[in-house]
Write a structure and sequence with these properties.
By secondary structure, this protein is of the alpha/beta class. It has one domain: 3-Layer(aba) Sandwich (Rossmann fold). It has six helices and five strands. A five-stranded parallel β-sheet has the order 3-2-1-4-5, sandwiched between helices. The longest helix is centred in the middle third of the chain and has 17 residues. The radius of gyration is 15 Å and the shape is globular. The N and C termini lie far apart (45 Å).
Length: 160
């Protein structure tokens, strides 16, 4: 079975993330959505909350599971027997950071490939950060995130 890891902070998950996930499900036998415990990023939601926000949005995928991880991504990938890491590239601004991470991961663990896919252009400007900024000030983010995420953001930011 060809397993890939789809890692991220997913704080919160967006339709862009789900689009990349859909593309990954067509390329691999199984995709493991892997939520990083990354306190350095100052996430709005805990890893466990992010897990609960993602789960309801995976019901249409028979070959997807979700978990959390700590530590180096490539070590986690090897523990899971993954053959690849899949990442989304929205714009050229993503490329440099992603390129450097891929090269470091290859240096640390040459057996795990990094594969990039481009999400649908409708999501090329969407990011979790922007979604949180808009939501914080009461803006409508329902075109960018699933309904359960909209509700969670409204709760966190004190909107009805």
């Amino acid at each position: 079975m060809r397993l890939c890891i789809y890692p991220g902070t997913f704080d919160p998950i967006t339709y862009g993330h789900l689009d990349v996930l859909g593309r990954a499900t067509r390329l691999f036998d199984h995709v493991l959505v892997s939520i990083a415990h990354n306190p350095d990023k100052g996430p709005l939601f805990t890893a466990e909350q992010r897990l609960e926000l993602i789960r309801p949005n995976l019901t249409g995928y028979a070959n997807v599971s979700v978990t959390t991880f700590r530590g180096l991504l490539v070590d986690f990938a090897m523990e899971q027997h993954a053959v690849a890491i899949i990442r989304g590239l929205r714009a050229m601004s993503d490329f440099e950071l992603e390129f450097n991470m891929a090269l470091m991961n290859r240096h640390l663990q040459p057996a795990v490939e990094t594969i990039y896919v481009m999400p649908n252009e409708d999501y090329s400007y969407t990011s979790s950060h922007l979604v949180k900024q808009v939501s914080k000030y009461g803006g409508d983010v329902s075109k960018f995130v699933p309904a359960n995420v909209v509700a969670a953001l409204r709760t966190v930011y004190g909107f009805k």
